[in-house]
Amino acid sequence: MQRTVPESHGPVRYGPPAPGPGLPVLPELQEVFAAASSRIGPEPPGGGTALRQAAAGYWTRRGLRCGPDDVIAAAGIQTLLFALLAADDGDVLVPRPCPAWWTPQARLLGRPAYHVPTPAECGGVPDPYALLETVRRVRAEGGTPGLLLLSVADDPTATVAPPEVVHEACEAAVSEGLHLISDETWSGTTHRPHETVLLSPAEMCPDDVTVTVDLAGSITPSAWPVAVARFPDTPDGAARRARALDILTALGSVVAGPVAAAATHALGEPPAVRDLARRAAVLYARVAGAAHHSVLAAGALARPPQAGRHFYADLGPLRPGLEERGVTDSLELENYLGERIGAPTPGGHRFGDDPYALRVRFATGPLLGATQEQRLESLNSTEPLELPHVAGALSRFATALDQLR
């Protein structure tokens, strides 16, 4: 029987920084942040009542009813996930590819992390049959699979998993006794919300799913670290929350007072916040669509981007031209394209993918402009692709790919 090898270690630990959203801070949030800047103390561990109530309201409006006692907050998604993993037992399963920081979290805890292939139509959610087979093999080899991480609206692939795929994967995971952690950071960033059906695993398996959202970069500015988690309203969910809160307390992962104030306001989704989210999604959809077209025109492969600020491309069909330039794996591809595009283009090895596959994640934020003024103009324009700075960035992007043919 082929041995199932966990991704518990690897030669690459540090990757290029992820580009920010590329958009200015909403003035309304700046005002709330500034008004709270005189607060001399942080939030209590797990977040204050107002922040947790706002998070509960955010989820309740999305059909995931909960109260503040079902929620915790932390100073960033990395420490929040670390606490969730540390609060549970068992080996970790993740889709391939997955967010770059998921596997390192398991490594820090000395826990095996097994990557499971995703179906052809989407990333973020494991193929249910591959998941069952992986669980079977891990147990046959003495492992103890306990947690599955997944993201319906996915980074890095920018896809949204169809409801039937989510249902089958969740059903398979629960049947094997796995607890699910669903990262729903990008669920509010779908490019065409009226055409996209997005279903949370917590709607299907309410007693078996913990939901996380990284507010920094998706709802609030990326420089204001804050993330929230929603636990099942069950005795087991309460126990998981208590253990995670103990770990966050030990780590000292508390949200800064001004950040908590801004996050509380943003989670309430006042009109200005909703309007910015809508306009940003439209902008990212148009720019990502143009960049995706350039990838396909160059002869590479990529699923159409459906959410978020990134998309994932397979440059395998361009391998002959890349090898002529000394590019034979994803690390070399990362370095080569990063220099020519002028923005970080992390290779697939960062996301648990095969390092010899020529895959990269492209970011759309750097295509919006080089200055805050240009990015604001992009946001406010009815025809952003016709702006000189956007058209120029897209032309340079297309040229860098065309030269590989």
Features:
seven-stranded mixed β-sheet; single chain; three-stranded antiparallel β-sheet
Architecture blueprint of SSEs:
Elements: H1 27-35, H2 49-60, E1 71-74, H3 77-86, E2 91-96, H4 102-108, E3 113-117, H5 128-140, E4 145-150, H6 163-175, E5 179-183, H7 201-204, E6 209-214, E7 227-230, H8 235-251, H9 257-267, H10 271-297, E8 301-302, E9 310-314, H11 319-324, H12 330-341, E10 359-363, H13 372-380, H14 388-402
Parallel strand pairs: 2-3, 2-4, 4-5, 5-6
Antiparallel strand pairs: 1-7, 6-7, 8-9, 9-10
Helix pairs in contact: 1-9, 2-9, 3-8, 5-6, 10-14
Write a compact overview of the structure shown:
The protein has 405 residues and is of the alpha/beta class. The chain is built from 14 helices and ten strands. It has helices spanning 27-35, 49-60, 77-86, 102-108, 128-140, 163-175, 201-204, 235-251, 257-267, 271-297, 319-324, 330-341, 372-380, 388-402; strands at residues 71-74, 91-96, 113-117, 145-150, 179-183, 209-214, 227-230, 301-302, 310-314, 359-363.
